[in-house]
Write a structure and sequence with these properties.
CATH architecture of the largest domain: Alpha-Beta Complex
Number of helices: 15
Distance between the termini: 37 Å
Largest sheet: 7 strands, mixed
Number of domains: 2
CATH topology of the largest domain: Polyamine Oxidase, Chain A, domain 2
Number of strands: 19
Oligomer: single chain
């Protein structure tokens, strides 16, 4: 590692790596620093019982030729080397309820989306068409979403509420529950979630939905390959724990007390609250600093990872979003010890040779960080191991058992197919991904106060920029666009968008 670079990037999540490639392509000398033993943030995979599991990437949208994420991935040079499996075109997601035997599909392609749901809601064609029209219209009002150059966003769009939108569309309670049924994608909150968050989250999946064969870490691998192609460097076990200033100007990132990397520009891909604390409160305007520190994080999750016995459980080429009750689609995070889990998402992992039988399954539900308060002061990663003790293991085992009982109601006999079960808690998400209190998707966006959670990539520290899921939108597409926004502040927005379009058209 050199002593000085044009750009030093802290954190090797998707936002950090895409930013690194975009700037390396422009001729900047770039260095990415990662504290853990694995690059990629939410793109990380891990192995249990010789089986690959994804940390956060369960499916990706918009990767059909000509679609938005396809174009971005094409520009950064990774699209052609990704190993993908297209999900069921008639039902990439299935919404189901404990009080209803019907399984409701979300299909790929807007017309197909409408036709598949008309089977169950034949009187609601006008509603479904209006829903699809509005979703696309909202997405089109965000220029970068479609690789266009444009100005800011209207307060009117940002302040529209998802639940209110659905209530105005139809009186059919079940249809509203089905349309909001994948709200785990953005940790939906009934009186807060803006419509644009819903629209930007679901639109790319309706366009096209894909699973990563053998896990999302292949994206990281390809990103690093491209970064090195353009002369960029990336290092793990390099935890930045402070910054150096000279004459009031940011000049270095400090690593593990005894190492320092100098740079002209710095991009933080780590949690904004953490970044601001590390830089120093005095470097920012008091109202801004207080606003960021007061932001409420999206809820965290408890996940179980199931390894199946060979040829014992059928593979399904879709996800399930299951709720105990169709009246509580917006209330899955409002649980008690007795009612948990109120809802969950189930996704299959896919291997190269899988057609009939599943190798594994991941099931995710909400969990409040407060439940882990007893172990909050502990930290445990492969780079920094710590045993949290028997009580933590007992907590996990108790939750696994309860979760399995819930899954058995949906998948009778699943227990007979299980070879082994593993789990992660909000502490796992916090330690490996770096989110404040283990949050899934950054900060809660609120339609009642849409500007409160907006954090611009350019900071008041002249050469410090921010990127990642808390800056623009979460998800693969949201973070990729966020990296483009960050780099636009350095190289110019119009220039960068025109260049991307010229290269991929």
């Amino acid at each position: 590692m050199k002593n000085e670079y044009d750009v030093v990037i802290i954190g090797s999540g998707l936002g950090g790596l895409v930013s690194a490639i975009l700037l390396a392509k422009e001729g900047y000398s770039v260095c990415v620093l990662e504290k853990n033993n694995q690059f990629g943030g939410n793109l990380q995979t891990f192995v249990r019982d010789k089986t690959i599991f994804d940390t956060g990437i369960h499916y990706i949208g918009g990767l059909e030729k000509g679609q938005n994420l396809y174009k971005y991935f094409k520009y950064i040079g990774i699209m052609d080397d990704l190993n993908l499996k297209k999900m069921d075109e008639d039902a990439f997601d299935i919404i189901s309820f404990g009080d209803d035997t019907i399984e409701y599909p979300h299909a790929q392609g807007y017309e197909n989306f409408i036709q598949q749901l008309l089977t169950y809601f034949p009187e609601e064609e006008a509603c479904l068409r209006e829903y699809c029209r509005e979703i696309q219209e909202i997405c089109n009002s965000f220029p970068l979403y479609n690789l266009k150059f444009g100005g800011g966003y209207s307060e009117e769009i940002l302040s529209r509420n998802t639940n209110e939108f659905l209530n105005n569309l139809t009186d059919n309670q079940k249809l509203k529950a089905v349309l909001a049924g994948s709200n785990f994608l953005y940790a939906g909150i009934e009186d807060k979630t803006p419509l644009y968050v819903h629209a930007l989250s679901v639109n790319s999946y309706i366009q096209s939905s894909w699973r990563c064969i053998n896990g999302g870490s292949q994206i990281t691998k390809q990103l690093i390959k491209q970064l090195k192609k353009y002369g960029g460097e990336v290092y793990k076990y390099k935890e930045v724990n402070g910054f150096g200033f000279e004459n009031g100007k940011l000049v270095s990132a400090k690593i593990n007390e005894d190492e320092e990397v100098f740079g002209k520009l710095f991009i933080s891909n780590i949690e904004p609250k953490t970044t601001l604390k590390m830089i120093g409160e005095e470097k920012f305007r008091k109202p801004f600093y207080k606003r960021v520190q007061s932001l409420e994080g999206v809820p965290s999750a408890f996940s179980i990872y199931i390894v199946f016995k060979p040829e014992s459980f059928k593979y399904f080429n879709h996800n399930y979003y299951h709720f105990n009750n169709s009246n509580e689609v917006w209330k899955a995070n409002d649980y008690t010890e007795e009612t948990w889990p109120k809802a969950y998402m189930v996704s299959m992992n896919v291997g190269k040779k899988m057609e009939v039988w599943a190798e594994s399954m991941t099931a995710i539900t909400y969990m409040k960080f407060d439940e882990l308060e007893e172990w909050e002061a502990t930290k445990n990663t492969t780079a920094d191991e710590m045993d949290r003790g028997e009580s933590y293991q007992e907590f996990k085992e108790r939750k696994i058992e309860k979760f399995l009982k819930a899954l058995e109601l949906k998948f009778p006999g699943i227990r007979d197919s299980i070879k082994s079960v593993h789990a992660s808690t909000p502490l796992s998400y916090r330690d490996y991904i770096g989110g404040d209190r283990g949050n899934l998707y950054g900060y809660i966006k609120d339609s009642n106060n849409p500007m409160k959670t907006f954090i611009t990539p350019k900071t008041k520290v002249e050469n410090l920029f921010l990127t990642g899921q808390s800056i623009n939108m979460h998800g693969v597409l949201g973070v990729t666009i966020g990296a483009v926004v960050t780099c636009s502040e350095i190289v110019g927005k119009e220039y960068l968008i025109n260049k991307i379009n010229a290269e991929v058209s």
